[in-house]
Specification:
The protein is of the alpha/beta class. It folds into 2 domains: 4-206 and 299-312, Spore Coat Polysaccharide Biosynthesis Protein SpsA, Chain A, CATH 3.90.550.10; 225-295. The chain has 11 helices and 8 strands. The chain has helices at 17-30, 49-59, 74-84, 104-112, 129-145, 162-170, 178-185, 208-222, 225-254, 262-295, 310-316; strands at residues 4-10, 37-42, 63-68, 89-92, 117-122, 154-160, 189-194, 302-307. An 8-stranded mixed β-sheet has the order 7-5-6-4-1-2-3-8, sandwiched between helices. Helix 9 packs antiparallel against helix 10. The longest helix is centred in the C-terminal third of the chain and has 34 residues, at 262-295. The chain is elongated, with a radius of gyration of 25 Å. It starts with a strand and ends with a helix. It binds uridine-5'-diphosphate and magnesium ion. Residues 9-11, 13, 43, 71, 73-74, 77, 94-96, 98, 199, 204-206 line the site of uridine-5'-diphosphate. Uridine-5'-diphosphate binds at residues 9-11, 13, 43, 71, 73-74, 77, 94-96, 98, 199, 204-206.
Length: 317
């Protein structure tokens, strides 16, 4: 039986931390093998999250807290967890208990049965109707656009085996859409149906804008179809214009009249400038990402790591 690290990003989750600690520790207590660890990544919390976790790390040597120097965002925090986990198997889960830690033993069973990635498929959700519909549309859209087969309705809650962890860590990109990279690296993967619970306490830290950014990150990192769509729209516009030119010539020579319509021309002009600006924006999205990658700034910066040294415990004992 192998050792697992559970990586959990947290941002202003003081209301959830006590329950989270209790439930996750209960789960690793029940896991055979070891030594297991819990790696919390405090993503620049402004409340008591960091203090609560540091206290827990002091009480329990299996807990490590990686404190980032400011808020870098969920995906960056997950990457920090992945980088600081000893492994060899790493489980990533949200810190708001929407991902139930009690499912982890099942992940481990599948891993021991030979899978390199065991991910949770969200069989049901508690969010409002509009958000649920948006998630459904998004996952289907990105799957249709992407070159790799991205699993539907699955987030970052997963167990990653050592080969997958190694492969993901070696990827040089800074803007990471982890659930996509996980699918991209391949290996033997299996999804298990897990209901997505309501958040235990507190408010979601993903604002609508952050969700839209995540969706754009996902689409831009895994597809260039939006760029190609410009060419497609160009072909459609050119064909329409050619057809209309033929029609105008025909009317001119057979009937001797020219098509008229100031309003129609204005509409066509404004519509096509809209299409052009839209595609400029799409190119801008990709260019912005190329720029961000070219700068080569790290995904996150670590301020401190809170951990009670094992050595210290042994010396006291
Ligand atoms: N989170 C984070 N940094 C952020 C936003 C969120 O570390 O900038 C953490 C948050 O504390 C939680 C997890 O990421 O543990 C998922 O966030 P949230 O529940 O707000 O997202 P949602 O479930 O609404 O997608
Ligand atoms: Mg959540």
């Amino acid at each position: 039986m192998t050792a697992v690290s559970i990586g959990i990003p947290v941002y202003n989750e003081e209301a959830v931390v006590p329950e989270l600690l209790a439930r996750v520790t209960r789960v690793i207590d029940s896991l055979p093998g070891g030594p297991h660890e819990i790696v919390f990544v405090d993503d620049g919390s402004a409340d008591r999250t960091r203090q609560l976790l540091a206290d827990a790390a002091w009480r329990d040597s299996r807990i490590k807290v990686v404190c980032l120097s400011r808020n870098f965002g969920h995906q960056a925090a997950i990457c920090a967890a992945l980088d600081h986990a000893k492994g060899p198997a790493v489980i990533l889960m949200d810190g708001d208990l929407q991902d139930e830690p009690e499912i982890i033993p099942e992940f481990v069973r599948q891993y021991e049965a030979g899978y390199d990635v065991v991910f949770a498929r969200r069989s049901s959700r508690q969010e409002g109707l509009a958000l649920r519909a948006a998630y459904k549309v998004f996952y289907r859209l990105i799957r249709a656009l992407s070159d790799v087969t991205l699993p539907l309705d699955s987030g970052d809650f997963a167990l990653l085996g050592p080969s997958v962890v190694g492969a993901i860590k070696r990827l040089p990109e800074r803007e990471r859409y982890l659930r996509g990279l996980r699918a991209w690296v391949g290996f033997k993967q299996v999804g298990i149906d897990v209901p997505r619970r309501a958040r235990f306490a507190g408010r979601p830290k993903y604002t609508t804008w952050k969700l839209i950014k995540l969706a754009l990150d996902g689409i831009c990192s895994f597809s260039i179809v939006p760029l190609r769509a410009a060419a497609l729209a160009g072909i459609v516009a050119m064909s329409a214009s050619l057809l209309f030119a033929c029609y105008a010539l025909y009317v001119r020579f057979s009937v001797g009249a020219s098509p008229e319509g100031f309003t129609a021309s204005l509409l066509v002009m404004t519509f096509l400038s809209g299409v052009q600006l839209l595609f400029l924006g799409v190119i801008g999205e990709y260019l912005g990402r190329v720029y961000a990658e070219a700068k080569g700034r790290p995904t996150y910066v670590v301020a401190t790591v809170e951990k009670r040294e094992r050595r210290h415990v042994e010396r006291v004992a």
